[in-house]
Amino acid sequence: MSEYVVEMKNIVKSFGEVRAVKEGQFNLKKGEIHSLIGENGAGKSTMMKLLYGMYPINEGEIYIKGEHMTKLDPKIAISHGIGMVHQEFMLVNELTVLENVILGFEPKKGMTIDFDKARKDVQHYIDQYNMEIQLDKKVSQISVGEAQRVEIIKTLMRGAEIIILDEPTAVLTPQETKKLFEILANLKAEGKSLVFISHKLNEVMEISDRISVMRQGTYMGTVNRDETSPLDLTKKMIGREVFLNIEKDYSKAGEKILEVQDVWVPSQKETSKIRGMSLCVRAGEIVGIAGIDGNGQSELIEAITGLRKVEKGAVILNGKNVTNKSPRKVREAGLAHIPEDRNTRGLNRTMSIEENLVAVELDKKPYTKGIFMNTAAQDKYSEEMVRQFDIRPTDYKLPTSSLSGGNAQKVVVAREVSMNKKLLVASQPTRGVDIGAIESIRNTLEKAKKQGAGVLLVSAELEEIISLSDRIIVIHEGEITGEMAASEANENNLGLLMMGGAKNTKQKGEEAS
Amino acid sequence: MSNSLKGFYKILITLVVALGIGAIFILAIGENPIAAYGALLKGALGTKLGLGNTIAGFTPLLLTSIAFAVAAKGGAFNVGVEGEVILGGITAAYIGVNWGFLPVPLLYLACFLGAMAVAAAWAFIPAVLKAYYNVSEVCVTILMNTVALYIGSYLVSGPMSAGTATPQSDPVLVTLPKIMKPSNANAGVFIAIVVVVLVILIVYKTKWGYKIRTVGTNPAFADYVGISSKKVFISTMLLSGMLGGIAGCIEVLGVYGYYLDNFAKDLGTNGMLAALIVKSNMTTTPFIALFLAVLKAGSMAMQQATDVPKSIVDTVSAIFIIIATMNFVVSLRTRRKAEKAAAEKRPQDPSSAGTEGKGGSK
To answer: Is the predicted ipTM greater than 0.85, yes or no?
Structure first.
């Protein structure tokens, strides 16, 4: 038996046309934490899902504990001691934590479930790894961090020796992240082998023993943590020195297009999710908002675009006060908006590409003729958009539900950008789209800026924020924790601010880099 | 094009299967299904009276089914069409009886406009409750149907009573001409057809229609692009209510010549069924309405000509609806499968996949 508990060799996996993994290599030693890093869409999650048996591989070999796996599905993977904690939790909200953990293999006592035994078993793990879990609460009542611990317990209860964590920190607050890392260290001390998927370099540097890098579906190499640096990893991840040679013409920034003055915004669940944010966007600049998902980005964007009422404060767009105005009024004042959720908000999936393209301009000439729609003009416009933004397929009468993620996003971008509005708010514009579309969408934003629009960019991708923005604003738990020119920014100083740690010591944060 | 053709094809098959199962029932009671269906068809279409009855039954059904379908296009499940028919009817009766000071053409217009306005106002209530207070329009409209029924009953038993034994109003001063005496078929059918064509045009060719369809399929998208989902929802319900009101007005002016208590019984429900069978497809809904009208009109003739009770017709339409809904389920499942095969992206639930996994590592 080799020294590896998992070996994946020469893996190839395609989804339809898209080659998600072109050449994947991965191995895992017993009792190590092995990080798998790469940009979004680099194929790291896919690799691990292949190991967990969620999809069959097209080519290559997978060995688990030296055994060549010719057939693999989650059931077989679990029986070989593999557990996976997914990005989206697989828990039943209306059941208690205990019920969730034992779901599917409940200990029986005659006809009934032996809850006492179950509780004892689960408690054993909780004590062993020092996790804080309240067994009798319903899942709907516990925090995200706790739900994640429940997921980890679940894998342990199923006898997992190898635990895959798919971007576990994306949804966590810094405190919860710290707690998670303690648990991971405990698990490692107990001899479990862990795979940690992430694109956050500081976390990877903190927790890993070894680090493997993937880029565009291809394995780029494995290094020991002690022999590498974030800069080195970044080069491997992206394939070039991204941050240094971007030429940005920032001198053109003109008058203020958007001003947000001390706004307070509630979220779905809590009041004052955003507490007193002020910022401005000028003509001809891209302002990036960096922050861990769920720290108020969505609420801020919705408040600016009129989709969410603000508690207090003001939003000024193009000199007009648009605070708490309807989305239509805000759009009339000069807003274009690429929303973060393309499937529910950005597109009407059941309607055609054309109907989606004209949605915003429907009431304006030449797309309207009296009370009727001017189909000829709409056709002409759609044809132009499909050509200009390279939307495929080109038949604009097709429903948007038939489009791939990248092309669907191009429809959204085409609609919003073609109007040449003064302010373009782009929220996660490249999330979940393929590399080609990412390139074209980024170029489009750059072009909008050159033509004098102010662009407010929100992205979970630090790399995207840094390479596109002129100015970067970092937010944490509904407050602005720092602001800097993009030229001064890097993963480290932004990361620190994103953790909220250096709220009033911006200078220190920069020095620390 | 090919899609709607496919739709027709599907409905046709469903129809044949439903009639087939109905035939088994007829055989079970010892009758000849072919003779029974023959009598039904002849009764509904073969005689002048029969054809007239079919048209008379078809007219309100056409309007109520489109009223339901258009509401569904805007995302509303409007069970309240029946109440809107009743109130439209009573309003038409009131104006038709009391506004004799108007010249005749204007009186016609007043009857229709009044019926539409009152019915729309009635639909406005559940619409606002839904749009601004998120109260289920289904519950509200079901309850309001009963209220509307009693308002009508009260008015024709009390203030508007003709003083006859049956609760009804005085005869109206203007009526729609009957077209196939002695049946109840009247010129209202032409009005209904024109109205339905207009509504289909509105839904598919106008900006308002575009907004209705947008809000009906994705209100979040609508709000985001600057179409107020609340306002459009309400306007859709108003349109639906108006259609109900027109149906009520035609019944009063065309069929009875006065307001007869309980005249709208089942008109709303049957219209809803017609629309539901084809998932509120605007172009096929009228044909289903026609089919239901044929069944209804022919059932009496069938009962007279053979020993098959006319309730077999209810059985057939019930089976029709069940199969049509099942069909919906089947197509949904094939779509799911197709999606899964195409994308293969949806992560499987490990808790279900791991059902047999070894629990607890001791």
So the answer is: no
